[in-house]
Amino acid sequence: MLVLALESSCDETAAAVVKDGRTVLSSIVASQISVHAEYGGVVPEIASRKHLESVSFVVEQALAEAGVGLDRIEGIAVTQGPGLAGALLVGISVAKGLAFGRSLPLVGVNHIEGHLLAVFLEAPVQFPFIALAVSGGHSHLYRVDGIGRYQTLGQTVDDAAGEAFDKVAKLIGLPYPGGVAIDRLAVSGDPRAIKFPRPLLHDGTFNFSFSGLKTAVLTHVGKHPEAKEAGINDLAASFQAAVCEVLTKKTAAAIAATGIKRLVVAGGVACNSALRRSMGEYAAANGVELSIPSPPLCADNAAMIAVPGDYYLGLGMKSGFDLDALPVWPLDKLAARLKEHC
Ligand code: ATP
Ligand code: MG
Ligand code: FE
Questions:
Q1: What is the reported pTM?
Q2: How buried is residue 175: exposed, middle or buried, by Cβ count under 10 Å (0-12/13-18/19+)?
């Protein structure tokens, strides 16, 4: 099936044309990063307005690059949540208009489900697998038994990993989004220079906590102002090492507890070079089959939305024109929706 997918949950306006949920014919992403960088983070009202400005062009570009007209599209998939309500509504409204105008089936997709399945656009992964979603709003460990069948094993009790990167970057004077800036500086820093805490590492759960780590960085730069100047590479590397160690060890614990030796790491923070390295080393040493999408598929995009979208549309699952944005939408809820339909 040829699916047109739309994504507008946060600060990227994206559209993609994907064949059979596997082959990307086009994937266009218009980022608003430069606009929000001025404010040090995403401003919801501005995000919605920017989506409105870009969405038509992004859809046209996706169709043009794929070399197909709207008449060839067989279904529409759109991010329904989680995300910023006003931002989500832009993609949803356009998707509804296209579906109505062309009498096409429409399905609402969970953004995090898209992140977890993005890797299928490069190489399929056998079920079940363990998945770590690390992004601006999520640090979640899941057991994945199939498309639509997710069980949360653990999650952050406060900040998400990406949020921690962004907040720490801001407090040491780096631009938004902070993850990229910290990753870059950390390359020439010593990850052992500063011993930051490893929160919840031994608490026996699969939960994460990153807000204490942010406070630890704040306390450190308060006592050692030079850490923000000449010492900034070591600071970035040490903070990043703490985040990566916790993410890798908790994921390892989930794999050990479930005996499932297949792992997917997904979401914007999965672009992080130290995390990719640390997960790679752990997987190689423990016979775990590791899949991490290439960086453009880790970051927000619409192609990833087409993977579950194509599957659900193939099952005949359709959303009505009353489809509404779901700013909060835990993945565990998807199993019931699937069961209701099948
Ligand atoms: P969610 O997916 O939870 O709804 P989101 O869509 O806003 O949130 P993503 O776009 O998936 O989040 O990821 C963005 C996050 O990834 C930002 O917090 C950003 O700092 C982080 N990030 C991007 N690249 C890197 C990197 N190289 N290292 C660390 N973090 C990174
Ligand atoms: Mg984003
Ligand atoms: Fe995302």
A1: 0.97
A2: middle
